[in-house]
Amino acid sequence: MEEGIVTWSLLAEQKPGVDSNVGQHAGIAAGGSSSSSSSSSATAVVVLSTFVTCCGSFGYGCAYGYSSPAESGIMYDLGLSTAEYSVFGSILTIGGVLGALISGKVADIIGRRGTMWFFETFCIMGWLAIVFAKTVIGIWIWASWLSAEITPKNTRGGFTAAIQLTTCCGLSLMFFIGTFMHWHPLALIGTIPCLVQVIGVFFIPESPRWLAKCGKEKEVDASLQRLRGNNVDISQEAADIRDYTESFECLSESRFLDLFQWKYAHSLIVGVGLMSLVQFGGTNGISYYASSIFKVAGTSTSIGTTTMAIIQIPFSALSILLMDKLGRRPLLMITAAGAFFGSALTGLAFLLQDLDQRKEIVAILVFTGIVVYSAAYSMGLASTPWVIMSEIFPINIKGSAGSLVNLANYFSAWIVSYAFNFLFEWSSSGVFFIFASICCLIPLFVAMLVPETKGRTLEEIQASIT
């Protein structure tokens, strides 16, 4: 998904300019007549579209939170070693890598709705493979970037951040019921949001920007009218969408190698760099193997994972409120600092354990560090990079760029999720100090390279960055 996901761009698709002419159009779209009522409020159709998209992210959250509560049961029932369970725990990210290779092209060919439906069927098959498994089976393919193409600019960040909230809700659900439910029926629950989305995609409109890209003029107006409301004049916004799409279709062909033109270098560095840094900051290792971390620290695994589940929901909700008020850059830097503190505190606790210090102090510090990290991640690091990714790439490379960014995200996540158990056995304190050092780099990266996109139209953002 995430990230879906990601991925994860129907709520915010964009078209920047790459020359002065297109840049002038971006200025028009950013202000003046294009910032009319048609881009100022969220309609029921936008809310419904976001809900359907969020069902997918909820399902991803269930998958994201499945491996931690299921770890002991699966290892016991299937007789798995730590190394073998590390492979199972990282299967989600392996599926993400595979999905990233084709998701962008699929989205360009069959549209955003069709892509959701197509990949969600694979998610259902993956869950069912686990439900009926007698051996370790399951491949996860997730495509996101859907929720950024259809929302108005002043609520775009909040709506897109809502995907992360539902992801956290899915994760929290697994952490809650996973404490008392066997891993087979636990997997069956994961199919429910997938089924809801498979049905729901038939009741939401396609992205007007994708329709314009395909030359479906009448469908552009119809889709945009549904999204903005029957009484809203969408003529200017529809004209802007067609104008930008036509400009970029003329300026460049949609080929994967087009991504590596100099004019897209900034966007690619921001996209790939930010996703990789966040993943190497340790989120998958901590979420996937939280039970093991608390157990080694001497903390109750049920209390620890339940607290993680509880804390992530309100902080994810807070990110929705702050995304379009505080801004993307400040939110990233503040939450990265929080993740640094949580990782460093956990590393310090395990260092004290290595020095045979009081066990109760170690347990409290690990518990506090993990909770702080989870809160910080949920409040900004989880959703903000995906919001930015959905805003900085122009329409002519969006599909290919989405695949590349998703590939970088899931490949980094796979490295962390697979290597975590080995690193944790090597040095329980050292692995968290590594995470802390990477989290420390995120604010520097953001300050130097990441643009602020709050309150700006997609065309304006892309015209400035390219």
Label the structural class: mainly alpha
Count the E strands: 0
Query: What's the multimeric state?
Result: single chain
Largest sheet: none
In total, the number of domains comes to 2
Beta-strand content bin: under 5%
Membrane topology: Multi-pass membrane protein
Subcellular location: Membrane
InterPro entries: MFS_dom, MFS_ERD6/Tret1-like, MFS_sugar_transport-like, MFS_trans_sf, MFS_Trehalose_Transporter, Sugar_transporter_CS
Domain Major facilitator superfamily (MFS) profile: 42-454
Describe this structure in words.
With 466 residues, this protein is an all-alpha fold. The chain folds into two domains: 162 residues, Growth Hormone, Chain: A, CATH 1.20.1250.20; 211 residues, Growth Hormone, Chain: A (Up-down Bundle). The chain contains 20 helices and no strands. Helix 2 runs antiparallel to helix 6 and helix 4 packs across helix 6. It is globular and about 70 Å long. The N terminus is likely disordered. It is found in: Membrane. InterPro entries: MFS_dom (IPR020846), MFS_ERD6/Tret1-like (IPR044775), MFS_sugar_transport-like (IPR005828), MFS_trans_sf (IPR036259), MFS_Trehalose_Transporter (IPR050549), Sugar_transporter_CS (IPR005829). Pfam families: Sugar_tr.
